C-alpha cells in the first residue's frame, strides 16, 4: 500500500469511528436510490473514500473519462476544488467538472476531517453543437474515443435548475446528518477525555500522598472512602446534585486507584455504589418499584462496558439519572402536598389554625411544609390563610344581612379590629367602606 492509499485509509478509519461505516453507506445509498444520482464521499484532496457504485454506477461518459489515468486525475482535482469551495462557505456548492458536467458538493466538517459528498453527472440544458465541441477540447490529450465520448454526452440526463437545487439541498441534509452523528461521538469522546484527565490527576495526586505517608495513610484513605459513601447517601437523599457529583468523582478516584487493572472488580465496586445511591433515592422519597427498574437497567448496561474510561462516564450519567428522577418525584410530591395544604386551609379557615395543624393534616413537618408552600405559591401558609379569610369576608360583606362584626367572626377573625386592619391592608379600604360600595 503506497503512502497515498495509507492516507486515504487512515481518513476513512477515523471517519468510520465517528459515524460508523454502516450509517455512511446507508445514507449515501438512500440518497442515490431516491434521486437516481450517484453519490461519493471524498476527502479534501479529492480522493474517493466511499462510493455508491453498488447502487448507482457512473454514467458511460464518466467511465470513459476515468478510463484514462490523466482523466481520472482531472476528476480528482475537480472534486478537491469543489470540496474546498463547499467547506469555505459551509453550504452546497454547484459546479461544472473538468469535462463539463454539472455536479454539486455538500461539505462535511468534523474536527480535523474536511470532506464533501459529491454527486451529479447531469446536464442542465440540451447539448448543442458548441457544447459537444467544447467537450472535444476538454478531453483533448486523453487516450479515449472522442466520438464515443461526445455521443455519451448527448445521452446524459437533463435536469432543471429547480431539480438540481432541490437535489443539492437534499444532499446538504444528508451531510448535516452525518456531521451531527459525528459531533455526538466527538462530544462524548471529549467528555470522556476531560473526565479521564481529571481522574488521572486525582489518582496521581493520591499516589504521591500514599508514597509520602506510607501504609498508615493508605489505610486512612480506605476508611475515608467508607465515610464518603455515607456522605454520598446523605447528599442523594437531600437532593444535592452538584455536591453529589463532585463526591462521586472522588469515590471513583479511590476505586480506580486500587483496581485500575481489574475491570471486573471496578464494575463490582461501582455496582455497590449503584445500590447505595438507589437506597438513598428511596429514602429521599423515590418510588421503590421505579428504582428497582432503573437498577435492573443499569446492571445490564454495566455488563457491556469494557474500559475504565467508559465506566467513569457511565457512573456519572447513572448518578444524574437517579438525581433527576428523585428531583422530579419530589417535585410531584411537593405539589400534591401544597394542594392538600391549600385545600385544608380553604375547608377550615373559620377555625383557629396554626402551622402545626396544617402540617399534621398533610403528614409533613411544619418547617418542610412551610418551605415548599412558600416556594410553590409565593406566600406563606398564614398569608394564604389570611387571603382566604378576606375573600370569604368580601363575599359576606356584599350580603345585607351580615354586619361587619358578624363577617369578622364568620370568616375566622376573632378580633374585629385586627380584621379591619388586615382587610384595609389587602383591599385598600375598610370593611365598612367596602360594604357601602358593594350594596
Task: Give the SSE layout.
Elements: H1 3-19, H2 21-35, E1 39-43, E2 48-51, H3 60-66, H4 69-89, E3 93-96, E4 102-110, E5 113-122, H5 129-138, H6 146-154, H7 161-238, H8 241-259, H9 263-283, H10 288-304, H11 308-348, H12 355-361, H13 366-377, H14 381-397, H15 404-410, H16 416-427, H17 431-438
Antiparallel strand pairs: 1-2, 1-5, 3-4, 4-5
Helix pairs in contact: 2-7, 3-6, 5-6, 7-8, 7-9, 7-11, 8-9, 8-11, 9-10, 9-11, 10-11, 11-13, 11-14, 12-13
Please outline what is shown here.
This protein has 439 residues and is an alpha+beta fold. The chain has 17 helices and 5 strands. α2 packs antiparallel against α7 and α11 (308-348) crosses α13 (366-377).
The number of helical elements comes to 17
Q: Indicate the percent of residues in helices.
A: over 70%
Alpha-beta content class: alpha+beta
Instruction: Please give the alpha-carbon distance between the first and last residues.
Output: 101 Å
CATH architectural name of the largest domain: 2-Layer Sandwich
Low-confidence stretches: 214-223
Radius of gyration: 37 Å
String of helices and strands: HHEEHHEEEHHHHHHHHHHHHH
CATH class of the largest domain: Alpha Beta
Number of domains: 3
Overall shape: it is elongated
Widest sheet: strand ordering: 2-1-5-4-3
Amino acid at each position: 500500500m503506497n503512502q497515498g492509499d495509507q492516507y486515504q485509509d487512515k481518513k476513512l478509519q477515523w471517519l468510520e469511528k465517528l459515524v460508523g461505516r454502516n450509517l455512511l453507506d446507508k445514507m449515501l445509498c438512500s440518497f442515490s436510490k431516491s434521486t437516481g444520482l450517484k453519490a461519493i464521499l471524498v476527502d479534501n484532496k479529492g480522493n474517493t473514500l466511499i462510493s455508491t457504485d453498488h447502487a448507482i454506477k457512473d454514467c458511460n461518459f464518466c467511465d470513459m473519462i476515468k478510463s484514462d489515468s490523466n482523466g481520472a486525475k482531472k476528476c480528482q482535482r475537480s472534486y478537491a476544488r469543489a470540496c474546498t469551495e463547499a467547506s469555505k462557505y459551509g453550504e452546497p456548492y454547484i459546479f461544472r467538472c473538468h469535462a463539463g458536467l454539472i455536479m454539486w458538493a455538500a461539505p462535511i466538517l468534523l474536527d480535523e476531517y474536511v470532506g464533501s459528498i459529491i454527486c451529479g453527472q447531469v446536464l442542465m440544458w440540451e447539448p448543442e453543437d458548441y457544447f459537444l465541441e467544447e467537450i472535444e477540447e476538454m478531453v483533448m490529450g486523453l487516450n479515449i474515443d472522442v466520438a464515443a465520448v461526445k455521443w455519451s454526452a448527448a445521452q446524459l440526463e437533463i435536469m432543471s435548475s429547480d431539480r438540481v437545487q432541490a437535489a443539492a439541498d437534499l444532499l446538504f441534509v444528508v451531510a448535516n446528518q452525518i456531521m451531527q452523528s459525528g459531533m455526538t461521538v466527538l462530544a462524548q469522546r471529549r467528555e470522556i477525555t476531560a473526565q479521564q484527565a481529571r481522574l488521572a490527576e486525582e489518582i496521581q495526586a493520591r499516589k504521591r500522598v500514599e508514597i509520602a505517608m506510607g501504609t498508615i495513610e493508605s489505610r486512612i484513605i480506605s476508611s475515608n472512602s467508607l465515610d464518603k459513601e455515607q456522605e454520598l447517601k446523605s447528599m442523594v437523599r437531600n437532593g444535592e446534585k452538584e455536591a453529589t457529583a463532585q463526591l462521586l468523582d472522588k469515590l471513583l478516584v479511590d476505586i480506580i486507584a486500587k483496581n485500575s487493572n481489574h475491570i471486573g472488580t471496578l464494575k463490582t465496586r461501582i455496582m455497590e455504589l449503584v445500590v447505595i445511591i438507589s437506597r438513598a433515592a428511596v429514602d429521599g422519597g423515590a418510588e421503590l418499584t421505579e428504582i428497582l427498574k432503573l437498577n435492573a437497567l443499569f446492571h445490564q448496561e454495566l455488563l457491556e462496558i469494557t474500559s475504565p474510561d467508559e465506566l467513569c462516564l457511565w457512573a456519572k450519567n447513572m448518578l444524574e439519572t437517579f438525581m433527576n428522577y428523585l428531583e422530579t418525584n419530589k417535585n410531584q410530591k411537593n405539589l400534591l402536598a401544597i394542594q392538600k395544604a391549600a385545600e385544608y386551609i380553604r375547608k377550615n379557615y373559620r377555625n383557629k389554625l396554626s402551622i402545626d395543624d396544617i402540617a399534621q393534616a398533610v403528614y409533613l413537618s411544619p418547617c418542610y411544609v412551610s418551605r415548599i408552600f412558600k416556594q410553590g405559591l409565593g406566600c406563606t401558609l398564614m398569608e394564604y390563610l389570611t387571603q382566604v379569610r378576606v375573600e370569604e369576608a368580601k363575599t359576606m360583606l356584599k350580603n345585607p344581612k351580615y354586619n361587619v362584626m358578624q363577617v369578622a367572626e364568620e370568616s375566622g377573625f376573632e378580633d374585629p379590629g385586627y380584621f379591619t386592619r388586615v382587610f384595609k391592608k389587602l383591599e385598600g379600604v375598610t370593611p365598612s367602606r367596602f360594604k357601602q360600595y358593594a350594596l
